[in-house]
Design a protein that fits this description.
about 280 residues; single chain; mainly alpha; disordered C terminus
């Protein structure tokens, strides 16, 4: 029953990706940890595989419509891949406990949720086709935009490797503001970058942690079916309203994760307790 419930949740993870273009990793990590009983480190690695594979399916319609700039994806993605690989390697160190990763995950999710709520609450402006309403995003100092892109790419990649969050909420504005990329193209290109991120982070974990391949493949198939359904239903719903509602849901997820790790946050600093032993609590 637990496995079946987890698979159903995996379908909803795919639906969220299809409806709003993100949220897969944000949902997959807590489902794997708190529903399926997977330890945080393997759960994050499995999430990278799941989200990366499902994003391949999600990028196909954008590619067919000509909304993917592979040159920009590989330039920006090179920095994010390096960051993701380094983040994964750092995460495999004994000093980085599963509890620390989950707490950092909750903080990142909370920030992303606030961002989505603010974006969803703003009045809709009538922009011309291909134009992006970037009033929410700060205007960067674009004298060295390429340097800003590399710096943000490394930061997004590090978070991806450490906590499994794809960073789509940060990639799209970076492509628009720093890379001068049209909105439609930025969304499609960001999926390619997420694929590269996830692949690099997953490789960084390989050989250092145990992986439940059967569960990972089952989740991937279920989420892939979900993203197809989500892409279909996205024609009938307003994305801004979805983003706002999903943002409040993410706050609840982040609060739950922090609550679950309230005691482990303090015990992880105890010199009498070896960090690796804390993984056994999951």
């Amino acid at each position: 029953m637990t496995f079946l419930f987890g698979i159903i949740l995996a379908v909803f993870i795919g639906i969220s990706l299809g409806l709003i273009g993100g949220g897969g990793s944000v949902l997959a990590v807590p489902v794997l940890v708190y529903v399926m009983g997977v330890a945080p480190k393997p759960a994050i690695a499995m999430t990278l595989f799941i989200v990366g594979f499902v994003s391949i399916i999600g990028v196909i319609p954008h590619w067919k419509q000509g909304n993917v700039n592979f040159r920009t994806a590989f330039i920006f993605g090179a920095a994010t891949m390096l960051g993701a690989f380094l983040g994964a390697k750092i995460a495999t160190l004994p000093l980085i406990t599963g509890s620390f990763q989950m707490i950092l995950f909750a903080v990142v999710v909370f920030v992303a949720a606030i961002f989505m709520i603010k974006k969803g609450s703003q009045p809709v402006k009538k922009n011309s086709p291909g134009e992006l309403d970037i009033s929410l995003y700060p205007k960067p100092i674009c004298k060295y935009c390429w340097l800003w892109m590399i710096t943000e790419g490394l930061g997004v990649g590090l978070l991806t490797g450490l906590v499994g969050v794809g960073g789509g909420f940060a990639i799209v504005p970076a492509l628009v503001l720093l890379g001068n990329t049209p909105m439609r193209e930025a969304i499609g290109t960001s999926l390619v970058i997420i694929i590269l991120n996830s692949g690099a982070g997953f490789i960084g974990y390989l050989g250092h942690i145990p992986l439940n391949w059967n569960l990972m493949i089952s989740f991937t198939i279920a989420a892939s079916l979900g993203i197809i359904g989500g892409a279909y239903f996205s024609r009938f719903v307003k994305p801004r309203q979805l983003q706002r509602g999903f943002g409040y849901f993410l706050i609840a997820v982040a609060t739950f994760v922090l609550f679950q790790n309230r005691n482990k946050f303090y015990s992880s600093y105890s010199p009498q307790q070896h960090p690796i032993r804390q993984e056994q609590h999951y």
